């Protein structure tokens, strides 16, 4: 696909068995704000983001990713993407039309190659948001989403061919081969990354903090609250962003980050980083070692929602 019609990452929607507990964690500990509520749904916004919400929670018997949502600039772009996907044999879940979610807009849904539900939309009303002040240790925006894939090469090819994603960097290991693809849709180093895993699932969702001080304050605040830390604090080499990974109440991995690299499209060339070099995973050398425990937590549970669209 020659035209880059997707503009940005909008939100990630997660289903969990205990909505109240998950909502309390995201609003009381993680730093999001409940912007809308509808029976068994909670729409959570980041105070610094114009998006109506960056996380949607839904109560369901089993944990799953409900969908990952991306934005487009115009109705014509949404229609063009839907038409190209349908022509290429990609299954549309919902034809382009008016959205019934907060902020309205116009969009459609489809399954990706492994059965995740993806939404593309435009024209969603801008939420009243604010500048995050110095020292505030709450997320500014949703930074990126990383998915586990049993076929990372095929998943990368799907997002490049059908959605116009571009490869920023590759993470590799001498014994395993290529283990992660960092994919971009704008000047941010990555909005989506695809990790090699035993099954499709959520690897982690990452939230951008105001700066280094706020990132460290947030990391410390969660540690003091007794939230289980998986990995960090440290700074990755691909993307040059900081990282602190924690587990939410349902075993999903969430990240505080900041200073994700902004790249120049005209001069950027993808790098292949050797993950066996400790500085690649953590330039500072401050994080705990990446070991089997961290890896197992990142694999998460197999997603129960593949090729099954969420009910709302």
UniProtKB/TrEMBL annotation:
Check the record and name the Pfam families matching this protein. Glyoxalase
Give the residue spans that cross the bilayer.
none
- The positions making up the signal sequence are none
Specify the superkingdom.
Bacteria
Cite the VOC domain residue spans from the record. Answer: 8-123, 141-259
CDD domains per the UniProt record, alphabetical: BphC5-RrK37_N_like
Q: Which PANTHER family match?
A: LYASE, PUTATIVE-RELATED-RELATED (PTHR36113), SLL5075 PROTEIN (PTHR36113:SF3)
* Protein's recorded name: Catechol 2,3-dioxygenase-like lactoylglutathione lyase family enzyme
Organism of this sequence = Amycolatopsis thermophila
């Amino acid at each position: 696909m020659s035209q880059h019609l997707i503009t940005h990452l909008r939100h990630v929607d997660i289903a969990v068995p205990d909505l109240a507990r998950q909502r309390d964690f995201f609003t009381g500990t993680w730093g999001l704000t409940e912007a809308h509520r509808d029976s068994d749904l909670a729409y959570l916004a980041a105070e610094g983001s114009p998006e109506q919400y960056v996380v949607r929670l839904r109560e369901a018997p089993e944990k799953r990713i409900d969908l990952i949502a991306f934005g487009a600039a115009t109705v014509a772009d949404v229609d063009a993407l839907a038409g190209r996907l349908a022509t290429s044999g990609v299954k549309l879940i919902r034809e382009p039309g008016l959205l019934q979610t907060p902020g309205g807009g116009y969009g459609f849904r489809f399954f990706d190659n492994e059965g995740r539900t993806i939404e593309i939309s435009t024209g969603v009303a801008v939420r009243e948001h604010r500048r995050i002040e110095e020292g505030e240790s709450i997320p500014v925006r949703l930074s990126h989403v990383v998915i586990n894939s049993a076929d990372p090469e095929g998943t990368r090819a799907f997002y490049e061919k059908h959605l116009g994603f571009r490869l920023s960097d590759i993470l590799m290991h001498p014994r395993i081969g290529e283990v992660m693809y960092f994919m971009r849709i704008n000047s941010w180093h990555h909005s989506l990354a695809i990790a090699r895993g035993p099954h499709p699932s959520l690897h982690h969702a990452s939230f951008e903090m105001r700066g280094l001080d706020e990132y460290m304050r947030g990391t410390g605040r969660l540690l003091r609250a007794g939230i289980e830390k998986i990995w960090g604090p440290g700074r990755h080499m691909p993307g040059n962003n900081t990282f602190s990974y924690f587990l939410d109440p349902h075993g999903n991995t969430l990240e505080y980050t900041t200073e994700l690299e902004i790249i120049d499209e005209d001069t950027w060339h993808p790098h292949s980083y050797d993950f066996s070099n400790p500085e690649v995973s953590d330039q500072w050398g401050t994080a705990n070692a990446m070991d089997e425990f961290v890896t197992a937590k990142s694999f998460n549970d197999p997603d129960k929602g593949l090729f099954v669209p969420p009910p709302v």
